[in-house]
Every structure is written in structure tokens, then in C-alpha cells.
TrEMBL record:
Keyword Signal applies: yes
Similarity comment: family membership: Belongs to the bacterial solute-binding protein 2 family.
InterPro entries, per database record: Peripla_BP_I, SBP_2_dom
Domain of life: Bacteria
Domain Periplasmic binding protein, first and last residues per copy: 44-300
Extent of the signal sequence: 1-20
Keywords: Signal
Transmembrane region(s): none
Main localization category: other
Protein name, as recorded: Substrate-binding domain-containing protein
Pfam families reported for this sequence: Peripla_BP_4
PANTHER family: D-ALLOSE-BINDING PERIPLASMIC PROTEIN-RELATED (PTHR46847:SF1)
Stored Gene3D superfamilies: 3.40.50.2300
């Protein structure tokens, strides 16, 4: 209870503007209309998982690139890791170094919650990216991709193509089934399909890797001699999925990907692949976290909003990319 109360007071202090670059006697944030202008220099700690996946690599590089756009940001980058204990020690180092803000994509949200609360209690705003903490006291701002929305977008697109065929066979290749994000994607997909009278006929789970995607797709194709549409949750594992499809000589269906890799978009643009669309899961989340950390630490807000403070929760959109709009999204796509 004391930890929660302390964190609540820390959040209150951060929201009222008692952070770097603000006047503690002011009634609200400063200079909202000029957020791009150089302000007081702030030191931001960045910690994320190991870049062992195309999307995670893009998250890291985008965060660093975003910080380089600001003359008033010093980004302190911790080595990427999948070890929760090492990441905890990285955050503790940020706390000891008295950084002005921390942007954290936790390898495990629950495991990093306690140390994030510790940072908040120390008056350091934490920007939580992608994988949520298990307490609202652990972050000043949470930036998330819309996993449920990804499923809805994929299902809605498939409904638009197959909705007049109630007997259509829809298949799904998920990511890691034990992860809440995978469960959310599948739930959104099923809900969207239900609206047009369709359902998933064949489903397998992979592991977000090329090898796992190829193995799962081979299993699915062997079990389903006829498919009309396939949704694959992740474009990195989609490299393996497409390899399995090519090896099986199957092309009677169309495929929708997930995440928005450059590879997938180029295949969509070519028109020579079963891959017809992909659903964006933004790899800009780390960059957004850095931008928001700067605003919070300088006592600023989002200048296009009337609200005086940066929102506590931001969920990013999950648009569908097709041949019609692929050129709009290619510049920010990541390489699998």
C-alpha cells in the first residue's frame, strides 16, 4: 500500500508539471504550441529487449533516430536484453543516475513493474512501450500497439473479400499462444469474422520466427487441402510461412500478414504473391515513447490537443496495407 501511495504521489507530481524544464509554481504545462523548439536538455534512459526479431530491431533503431532529431535530448541506451533481471538492473542504474525520464519496452511487463514503480516514486516519469506493466502506478504514459485491433482489421479485410461466401475456409497462423498479445489478436480476428458469418476453420500457432512460421505453415497446409484466406499474425514469421506455401505449390488463397515489414509490403506491391495485405503493428512505438518522454520531462503536452498534459495511455492504429496504399507505408516499414 505504501508503494502504491508513493507512486500515486509521484504521478501527481509529474502530471502537475514538477519535472525538468518546468516552473513548479505554474498552473499548467509550458510552451505547448512550440513543442519542436529546443528546450531544457533532458536525459532519457532507453531499455528494450534484444533485437533478435526484425520488428524489435526497428523499435530500437527508431527510438535512437528519434532522439537524434532533438538538440535537447540526451538518450542513454542500455544494451538490449531478454533477461528480465538484467533489464531491472538497467532501470536501477537509470534511477541512480537521476535521468529525467525512462522509456522502457520490458522483456516481461510483470517482472519490470516493481522497478518501474521505484522509478516513479523517485520522481522519474516512466514511458511504458508495447508490453504493459501489471500496475497503473508503474508508468506515467503507456504506448501500445492495438493487438485486438490488428485482428479486427485482418478479419474485416477478409470479410470484405469473402463475406458473400458463407462456406469460405479461413485459416490462421498465430504467434506464441501463451502471450496475451496473441490471444488479443485471435480474439479480434474471430470477432470480426463473426460479423460476416465466417469463422476460423484451421488454426496453428508459431513462435514469431522464420523457422517456426515455416514449420507451422507446413503443418497447416497438410491439414487443410483447401483454403480461401489465411491470416498470419507476424511478417517476420511470414517469411517462413511464404516459403512453406511456395514449397507446397499452393496459390488458391490470399494471405494477410501482420506487423508491416518492408518484405511483406514489397511482395504486396509486386502483385506476384499470395500475400495481398498486411496489418500494421507500429515499429515506431519506441520513437513515440522517446518523443513523449521529452514532452513529459519538459512539462509540455501534445500541442494539437486541448488537454494540458500528455495522456496516460495511447493506443496506436492498426491499418490494413494493400496495393492501393502500400507506397504510403513503405517509408516507415522494417526489414524482416
Amino acid at each position: 500500500m505504501l508503494a502504491a501511495a508513493g507512486a500515486m504521489l509521484a504521478v501527481a507530481g509529474l502530471v502537475t508539471g514538477c519535472t525538468a524544464g518546468t516552473d513548479s509554481t505554474s498552473s499548467g504545462p509550458t510552451n505547448n504550441a512550440n513543442n519542436t523548439e529546443t528546450g531544457e536538455t533532458v536525459r532519457i534512459g532507453w531499455s528494450g529487449p534484444a533485437a533478435d526479431h526484425g520488428w524489435l530491431g526497428a523499435i530500437n533503431s527508431a527510438a535512437i533516430a528519434q532522439a537524434e532529431q532533438y538538440d535537447d535530448v540526451e538518450l542513454i541506451v542500455a544494451e538490449g536484453t531478454n533477461d528480465a533481471n538484467l533489464q531491472i538492473s538497467q532501470v536501477e542504474t537509470f534511477i541512480n543516475d537521476e535521468v529525467d525520464a525512462i522509456v522502457l519496452l520490458p522483456t516481461d511487463g510483470a517482472a519490470l513493474t516493481e522497478v518501474a514503480i521505484k522509478a516513479m516514486e523517485a520522481g522519474i516519469p516512466v514511458i511504458n512501450v508495447d508490453r504493459e506493466f501489471s500496475s497503473t502506478f508503474a508508468a506515467r504514459v503507456t504506448v501500445l500497439g492495438d493487438n485486438y485491433g490488428m485482428g479486427v482489421s485482418a478479419g474485416t479485410y477478409i470479410c470484405e473479400q469473402l463475406g458473400d461466401n458463407p462456406d469460405a475456409v479461413v485459416a490462421e497462423i498465430a504467434g506464441i499462444d501463451s502471450l496475451p498479445l496473441t490471444q488479443d489478436r485471435s480474439r479480434g480476428f474471430a470477432d470480426a469474422l463473426e460479423d460476416c458469418g465466417l469463422e476460423v476453420s484451421n488454426r496453428v500457432a508459431a513462435d514469431f520466427t522464420v523457422q517456426g512460421g515455416e514449420a507451422a505453415a507446413s503443418q497447416l497446409l497438410a491439414a487443410a487441402p483447401q483454403i480461401d484466406a489465411l491470416w498470419n499474425h507476424d511478417d517476420d514469421q511470414g517469411v517462413g510461412v511464404l516459403a512453406a506455401i511456395d514449397a507446397a505449390g499452393r496459390d488458391e488463397f490470399f494471405m494477410v500478414g501482420g506487423a508491416g515489414s518492408k518484405n511483406a509490403m514489397e511482395a504486396i506491391k509486386s502483385g506476384d504473391s499470395v500475400l495481398e495485405a498486411t496489418v500494421i503493428y507500429p515499429s515506431t512505438q519506441g520513437a513515440d515513447g522517446v518523443a513523449l518522454a521529452r514532452l513529459v520531462a519538459q512539462g509540455k503536452s501534445l500541442s494539437d490537443l486541448v488537454e494540458q498534459d500528455v495522456p496516460t495511455r495511447i493506443v496506436l492504429y492498426a491499418p490494413v496495407v494493400t496495393a492501393d496504399n502500400v507506397d504510403e507505408y513503405l517509408p516507415t516499414a522494417f526489414t524482416s
